[in-house]
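Below is our example:

___
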Amino acid sequence: MTRLGDLERAVMDVLWDVVPGTSDGVTVREVADALDGRELAYTTVMTVLDRLAGKGMVQREREGRAWRYRPAASREAHIAQLMLDALDLGGSRDAALVRFARSVTGTEAEVLRAALGSEAGLTPPDSPHPAGPGLGDTGTELTDRVDGPAGRRPAGEAAER
């Protein structure tokens, strides 16, 4: 997955924060207006959105002469894919996972345990959890999936038995 530059990240933050999943998306003008505090030309925002579409980060649909943009995936799915990509950088995936597990907070560890337990069928997805039924501390469903590279299961998906 492609890492985002500062301006691309700012534009994606607008899309993730402003565009609900059921929305038809937003126009370049709406994104530019939401990037208040930045003196950006309309054409700059249009170019960034075009490049993000080329990278597969946004989906766009024609509406008259304009395009409407929306995120191709949720912020959480993007971050999960970045984490998977980091594991592929080399060295031992197991060692990196152990190091990561030892660095999380107690609450984060509980969220991970609940997600892993749910995936393994040990606990139902709606079982009581400190952050709420079947939810992480961000309110994200534990059943979200991330599409991994070909030949690799999505994050947290158990192997077929």
Summary: Strands lie at 58-63, 66-71. The CA atoms of residues 117 and 123 lie 5 Å apart. The longest strand covers residues 58-63. The radius of gyration is 18 Å.
